[in-house]
UniProtKB/TrEMBL annotation:
SUPFAM superfamilies: P-loop containing nucleoside triphosphate hydrolases (SSF52540). The keyword Transferase applies. This is Pantothenate kinase. InterPro entries: P-loop_NTPase. Keywords: Kinase, Transferase. It comes from Rhizobium halophytocola. One of its GO terms (molecular function) is kinase activity. It comes from the Bacteria.
Length: 207
């Protein structure tokens, strides 16, 4: 298994040969640990003297009102419930350089907050993280040429089930609510990511 330090070395090496921004795609199913690894990577890069920032895909959830009107609210988190074009546009803007304000998803309130995070001009390495960054289906595959390095986290369905059950239990859902979240949405989305993502530069099974 590739070590965390080896991943940091690889990213730093690619950034050293890139005069502009280096965009790292960190993809994986719900509950895989993308947010945790993103934070670790930013901290690890800081230890190398590199300025890094996180660009979360979750900020591009469609609003609940739009999802409800389209009959998609129960499937929130599926590929069709995101503003993919908006996300592609922001990745292009980030890659071009300069300050970029990006939205962040508030899971407690289930809303995306606009301009909630700053990617500063000094941030040379950007960790884009989200379920579908490597999904080999339109329109998501429009992201492919924008990434300089790609990572896929795949802990396996059994471990994902355990983590997601723990997550939704923490949100005080009853057994029926947890069952729907798992089998009606999260695990189907997770299998889609595992089975239909493009080959990543590296695949890891734990964070």
């Amino acid at each position: 298994m590739t070590s965390f330090d080896a991943i940091i070395d690889e990213i730093a090496g690619r950034a050293a040969g890139n005069p502009g921004r280096t965009i790292v795609a960190l993809a994986g199913p719900p509950g895989a640990g993308k947010s945790t690894l993103s934070e670790r990577l930013v901290t690890g890069m800081a230890g190398r003297g590199e300025k890094a920032a996180i660009l979360p895909m979750d900020g591009y959830h469609l609003d609940n009102g739009i999802l409800e009107a389209r009959g998609l609210l129960p499937r929130k988190g599926a590929p069709e419930t995101f503003d993919v074009r908006g996300f592609i546009d922001i990745v292009k803007a980030v890659k071009a350089g300069g300050e970029v304000l990006v939205p962040v998803f508030d899971r407690d309130r289930e809303i995306a907050i606009n301009a909630a995070r700053v990617i500063a001009p000094v941030d040379r390495i950007i960790i884009a993280e989200g379920n579908y960054l490597l999904l080999d289906q339109a329109p998501w595959n429009g992201l492919a040429p924008l990434f300089d390095y790609t990572i896929l986290i795949n802990p396996g369905i059994e471990e994902l089930t355990r983590r997601l059950t723990e997550r939704w239990t923490g949100y005080k859902l009853d057994a029926a609510g947890i069952d729907w979240k798992l089998n009606g949405n999260d695990l189907p989305n997770g299998r889609l990511v595992i089975e239909n993502s493009r080959a990543a530069d590296i695949v890891i099974d734990t964070v």
